[in-house]
Specification:
The complex is a heterodimer. By secondary structure, chain A is mainly alpha-helical. Chain A has one domain: MetI-like fold (Orthogonal Bundle). In chain A, 64% of the residues lie in helices and 0% in strands. The longest helix of chain A has 35 residues. The C terminus of chain A is likely disordered. Chain B is α/β, with parallel strands linked by helices. Chain B is globular, with a radius of gyration of 19 Å.
C-alpha cells in the first residue's frame, strides 16, 4: 500500500465548485453597469407580469361564458350589447389569411435572398423593399390598401355597389394588407437563420451530388424550422394586434357581414370586426363605451396571442426541441392536446 | 530515411471493419524493428486503373493562382496522398476534382480534369459529385438523425418519404452496411434516430465517411479527414481506406506524414501551388529527388 501510494478512493471526493462571485471586488463603474443591466431585466419582468396580472384581474372579473357565444349588437344597455363572438371569428380569419400569405412568401423570399441573391443589384433592391415595407406605418398601409382594393378590377375581393363602385373593405383586403405586416418579420428571422448555417453543411450536401434545391428543401429548411416558427409567431402577433388596418380595411362593422349567399367566400368578401377593433369600439374612446367588455376582450386577445405563439412553436419545432418558452415553463406542454 | 512512425496498437475488432482478408493473413503484422509499418499489401499493378487525370491544371480564386500547372493521375486500386504545408493548394486541388471550387466566388480553372477520359465540366455537376464524393476536414453532419444522414445520401435527390416507408429493408441494410464500413455501427446501432449533432467529433467524422460511402462513389476524396480523430478512430479509417482501395479510387489530403506513409501508394508533394514531387510513397519518403521534399518530410519547414 505505502509502496505504490495508490489506494482506491472509497468514495468520490467532494467536488469544489466556485461559489457565486461577489461583485464587491469589481471596479465601481463595472458594478454600476452590472446592476443597471440587472435592474432593466428585472424591470422588464415586472412590467410583463404587471400587464398579464392586470389584464387577468380586470378581464376575468368581467368575463362571462356568454360573451364567447353572443353576437355583439349596438346597444347602450350593456345587458343587451351582446358578446364578442364575431370579433373572435374576425381575428382568427384575418390572422389565417395574413399568415397563409406571408409565411410561404416570406420563407421563399428569404431563401432566394440568402441562397441565390443574383443578380446582386436585384437582391439589394429586394432587401430595401422589405425594409421599406417594414418601416411603413400600418395606417399608411391601410390607406394604400383602400386605394388599391377600391379599384374595379379587384371588385371580386369586396362588396360592389349597384352603381358599380367597389367598397374595397373586406376580410380579403385586410388580410392581404396584414400579410405585409408579418412578411418582414418572417423574412428577417428565416434569413438570419440561413446565414447562420455554415457553408460546410451546404458543401457536404453538394459533395454528395445533391442539387441546390434539394439541399435547401431537405437540409437547410428542416434545420431552421424553429426560427421560421418564431418569425411566424412574431408576425401573427403583429397581425392580431393591429388595429389601424382593421379600422380602415375591414369596414369596422360590429358583426360579420357577409356578401351574397356563398358560405365562405361571401364572408371573406364581407366586412366585420376583430378583437382589437372591438376593444377600441368599447373603450371609453369608442362609440360602444363599455370598458368592462373592452377589458374582457383585451384579456381574451392577450390569451389568444400567447396561445397561438405556443401552438406555432409546438407545431413547427416538434418534440425534440430544447427551447423553453413561457408557456412551456408554465407547463402548457403537458396538456393533452399539445401531445 | 523514412519518417519516424509512431505505432498505434490496435486490437482489431473483426466486427468493426469487415476488411478483406489480407494475403499474409494479418493486417497488423508486427513491423520489423526500424521499419515503418505500412497498411496492406502493395497493390497489384495489373489491377490499377486510371480513373481521373489532372492535366496542367491551374486554379485561381480571383486574382490569386493557388494551384499552378499540376498534372496527376488518380487511379483505382491505389491511394494517392497529397501532402504539403498549409496554403500549398492541396485542398483546392482536391475540391476541384468534384467541382466544389466553383461554389467559391472567383473560383476559376485552366487545364483539363477528366473522369474516365471525359472532361468533368461536360458532366452534369450533381452526377459528377455523386460519382466523386468528398469528406471534409471539419465533420459536417446534417442536422438530422443518424439514419437520415445516411439515407439522404442514398436517395436520388430527396430523402425517401414517409415515416414508415422510409425504413425499407433495403435502405436499412445499405445504411447499416455504410455505418459498419466506417466503423460506427457498433456505437450507434441502438439509437439511429438520435440527432447526428449529438455525436462526438470523431463519431461525426465517421458518420460523414459512412455517408460518402453510402452513395457508392467511384472516387473518394478525403480532406485531412483524420485531423479531428483520435488514434483509434484514425486506425479504423486507415484500415477502411486500404480495404476500399480496390473498388474506389481514393485521394487523401493529409498533414500527417506518417499517415501518408501508412496508407498511400503514391504521394504528391505540393508547395506554394506547385507540384514539387510525385512518386510512389516509398520513393518520395525514402529517396526524394527534390531538396524541398527532403526538407519538408524531414521537418525542416512546414
Amino acid at each position: 500500500m505505502e509502496a505504490g501510494g495508490l489506494v482506491a478512493a472509497p468514495s468520490p471526493p467532494v467536488a469544489v465548485r466556485p461559489g457565486r462571485q461577489s461583485t464587491a471586488a469589481w471596479p465601481l463603474a463595472d458594478r454600476i453597469g452590472y446592476w443597471l443591466c440587472w435592474a432593466t431585466g428585472v424591470a422588464l419582468c415586472l412590467i410583463a407580469v404587471g400587464i398579464v396580472v392586470f389584464m387577468l384581474v380586470k378581464g376575468i372579473s368581467y368575463l362571462r361564458p356568454a360573451l364567447f357565444v353572443e353576437h355583439p349588437s349596438a346597444s347602450l344597455h350593456q345587458s343587451q350589447s351582446g358578446g364578442f363572438l364575431d370579433p373572435i371569428e374576425g381575428t382568427l380569419i384575418i390572422t389565417a389569411i395574413g399568415t397563409l400569405i406571408a409565411a410561404p412568401t416570406g420563407v421563399a423570399l428569404a431563401v432566394w435572398m440568402s441562397e441565390y441573391g443574383r443578380p446582386t443589384p436585384l437582391a439589394r433592391a429586394v432587401e430595401s423593399a422589405i425594409d421599406v415595407i417594414a418601416g411603413v406605418p400600418s395606417i399608411v398601409l391601410a390607406i394604400f390598401g383602400l386605394l388599391v382594393f377600391s379599384e374595379s378590377f379587384l371588385g371580386f375581393l369586396s362588396q360592389n355597389a349597384a352603381n358599380g363602385s367597389v367598397y374595397g373593405r373586406s376580410f380579403f383586403a385586410a388580410g392581404i394588407i396584414m400579410s405585409l405586416i408579418a412578411l418582414p418579420l418572417i423574412v428577417g428571422s428565416t434569413r438570419e437563420a440561413l446565414t447562420q448555417i455554415p457553408d460546410r453543411v451546404r458543401e457536404a450536401s453538394y459533395a454528395l451530388g445533391k442539387s441546390r434545391a434539394s439541399t435547401i428543401r431537405w437540409v437547410l429548411l428542416p434545420s431552421i424550422r424553429p426560427d421560421i416558427a418564431s418569425g411566424i409567431a412574431l408576425g401573427m402577433g403583429r397581425i392580431i394586434g393591429d388595429t389601424a388596418i382593421i379600422t380602415i380595411l375591414l369596414g369596422f362593422t360590429l358583426t360579420t357581414q357577409g356578401v351574397g349567399h356563398a358560405p365562405v367566400l361571401g364572408t371573406l368578401r364581407g366586412t366585420g370586426s376583430t378583437l382589437t377593433s372591438y376593444v377600441y369600439y368599447n373603450s371609453p374612446a369608442g362609440e360602444g363605451n363599455a370598458p368592462q367588455k373592452a377589458y374582457a376582450a383585451a384579456f381574451v386577445l392577450l390569451m389568444l396571442v400567447l396561445l397561438l405563439n405556443a401552438l406555432v412553436t409546438r407545431l413547427t419545432v416538434g418534440r425534440s426541441s430544447n427551447r423553453v418558452g413561457l408557456l412551456r415553463v408554465l407547463g402548457f406542454w403537458r396538456l393533452p392536446w399539445t401531445r | 530515411m523514412p519518417p519516424p512512425v509512431r505505432r498505434i496498437a490496435v486490437d482489431r475488432d473483426p466486427q468493426i471493419v469487415p476488411a478483406r482478408q489480407l494475403p499474409n493473413g494479418s493486417a497488423i503484422a508486427p513491423a520489423p524493428a526500424g521499419e515503418a509499418r505500412r497498411r496492406g499489401e502493395r497493390p497489384d499493378p495489373a489491377s490499377v486503373i486510371e480513373r481521373m487525370r489532372v492535366e496542367s491544371v491551374w486554379l485561381a480564386y480571383g486574382e490569386n493562382w493557388v494551384v499552378r500547372d499540376v498534372t496527376l493521375p488518380v487511379r483505382r486500386g491505389e491511394v494517392l496522398a497529397l501532402i504539403g504545408a498549409s496554403g500549398s493548394g492541396k485542398t483546392t486541388l482536391l475540391r476541384s476534382l468534384n467541382r466544389l471550387t466553383e461554389i467559391t466566388a472567383g473560383g476559376a480553372r485552366a487545364g483539363r480534369i477528366t473522369l474516365d477520359g471525359q472532361e468533368i465540366h461536360e458532366l452534369e455537376v450533381n452526377d459528377l459529385r455523386r460519382r466523386v464524393s468528398m469528406v471534409f476536414q471539419q465533420p459536417n453532419p446534417f442536422p438530422m438523425s443518424i439514419y437520415d444522414n445516411v439515407a439522404y445520401a442514398l436517395a436520388e435527390q430527396r430523402p425517401p418519404r414517409g415515416r414508415r416507408r422510409r425504413r425499407t429493408p433495403e435502405l436499412e441494410e445499405a445504411t447499416e452496411d455504410a455505418l459498419r464500413r466506417a466503423g460506427l455501427w457498433e456505437e450507434v446501432a441502438g439509437d439511429l434516430d438520435r440527432s447526428a449533432l449529438r455525436l462526438s467529433g470523431g463519431q461525426q467524422q465517421r458518420l460523414c465517411i459512412a455517408r460518402a460511402l453510402a452513395a457508392e462513389p467511384e472516387v473518394l476524396l478525403l480532406d485531412a479527414h483524420c485531423a479531428a480523430l483520435d488514434p483509434i478512430s484514425t486506425a479504423t479509417i486507415e484500415e477502411l481506406i486500404v480495404s476500399l482501395r480496390d473498388s474506389v479510387a481514393i485521394v487523401i489530403v493529409t498533414h500527417n506524414l506518417q499517415q501518408a506513409f501508412r496508407v498511400a501508394d503514391h504521394v504528391a508533394f505540393m508547395h506554394l501551388g506547385e507540384l514539387v514531387e510525385y512518386g510512389s510513397s516509398v520513393q518520395v519518403f525514402d529517396r526524394p529527388s527534390q531538396q524541398r521534399t527532403r526538407d519538408y518530410i524531414s521537418g525542416a519547414f512546414g
